[in-house]
Amino acid sequence: MKINIFFIICAVVALSACSSQGSRSRTSGDYKYMEAQQKSADLNVPDELERPKRSNQYDLPKLQSADKTPIMGDDVHISSPRLVLPLVAGSHVEEGSDSATVIFDQVNDDRALDQTIWDKVLSYLEQNNIGVESFDRENNVLMTDWVISITELEGSWYSFSNEYVEQAKKFKLSLDVAPHGRTAGLTSEIVDYIDENGNSAIAAMDPFMQRTNEVEFLNYIIEEYDFGIRLAMSERIAKIRDGFSSQLGFNPDGESAVMVDAPYNDTWPRLLLVLRKMGFDVIDLDQSSGIMFVVYNGQEKGFWKGLFADEKLALKKGNYRIFVQRSGVQTSVTFKDDESVTFDPKRTSDIFPTFKEYMASDNLDI
């Protein structure tokens, strides 16, 4: 029995030694090939025969590291390179690119793409207490201050204490904006590295470690970007569901309209819910130009039926057009007939009480 326990312990020790992080990322085994010597690189040709022309088409290139020393034995990395994660909507990576770069496409037209990207970068740096050494906004280049990373050292399986080392890195972030301004590539480059001994080791950093550091830092920024977008979307949805106040007024063209106390992009989706409750069906729409083609079929019946004094709007069933415009911090909603004739103030005021109640109703559903 004791012998079996002894063999089990030996097996656990062997497996623990083989499953370390280092052994999974580098080659292991017999390195006798490193001692092999090529006997002769020349082809022996008899004197009476003509020597054929030699082609270098199939010569194997010499694999070298950053300091020009051959990469052999356990210096050869076998782990997959770090991949850039394009998590943000409208982002992607260029196929075949070996740089730590992510491409962003314009999705939201509210702000310039480059301004949005830099805001997310600066937000990530601030939240993680990473200083900015320099920021050339005109040329879209930012140099970080020292980024401190703490790494756990690999220890023996029987060790009950962990050892950690501190390393410091600096990164250069550059943004390449397309001439049309709707596409931009953010690139991360490591420009300085202080190892655990306090020595500058950037020159000796191999390409694998360089890419790992650059991609990981870029991915942290992308994750922050994505989180910020999702958080802003959740907050925006909550505001839209809570509803907005409104009052009678005039649109930027001086026409009678309903003025909603909300930005254009928040008013638009809320208006779709409101119109449905008021008895309108949207048959066509274009948010970029702010026009909706609707048909009025009569106000729906249900829970909301008894909420208002009038069960029906003072409108004939038929086709209408609704124009939505930005008006400072507000949004104007203008009702027109099928021939684009604007409702006069009286017709607008007739439908306003119903519109106002639905627009302000909390958690309006469809």
The name CATH uses for the topology of the largest domain is Alpha-D-Glucose-1,6-Bisphosphate, Chain A, domain 4
The pLDDT mean sits at 83
- Determine the structural class based on helices, strands and strand pairing: alpha+beta
Biggest pleated sheet: 7 strands, antiparallel
Distance between the termini: 72 Å
Order of helices and strands: HHEEHEEEEEHEEHEEEEH
| Unreliable stretches covering 5 or more consecutive residues | 5-21, 304-311
From the 3D coordinates, which CATH architecture of the largest domain would you assign? 2-Layer Sandwich
> What portion of the residues fall into strands of 2 or more residues?
15-25%
Alpha plus pi helix count: 6
Shape: elongated
> What's the number of extended β-strand segments?
13
Radius of gyration: 34 Å
What is the helical fraction, as a range of percent?
25-40%
What count of structural domains?
2
CATH class of the largest domain: Alpha Beta
Describe the protein's architecture and organization.
By secondary structure, this protein is of the alpha+beta class. The chain has 2 domains: 73-239, 2-Layer Sandwich (Alpha-D-Glucose-1,6-Bisphosphate, Chain A, domain 4); 243-360, Outer membrane protein assembly factor BamC (TATA-Binding Protein, 2-Layer Sandwich), CATH 3.30.310.170. It has helices at residues 2-18, 21-25, 113-127, 207-242, 264-278, 345-360; strands at residues 91-92, 101-105, 132-136, 141-144, 147-152, 164-177, 183-194, 246-250, 256-260, 280-286, 291-296, 318-327, 330-337. The strands form 2 sheets. Strands 1, 2, 3, 4, 5, 6 and 7 form a 7-stranded antiparallel sheet that branches. The chain has a 6-stranded antiparallel sheet with strand order 8-9-13-12-11-10, with helices on one face. A hairpin with a 5-residue loop joins strand 8 (246-250) and strand 9 (256-260). Helix 3 (113-127) crosses helix 4 (207-242). The protein starts with a helix and ends in a 6-residue tail after the last helix. The model is unreliable at 5-21 and 304-311 (pLDDT under 50).
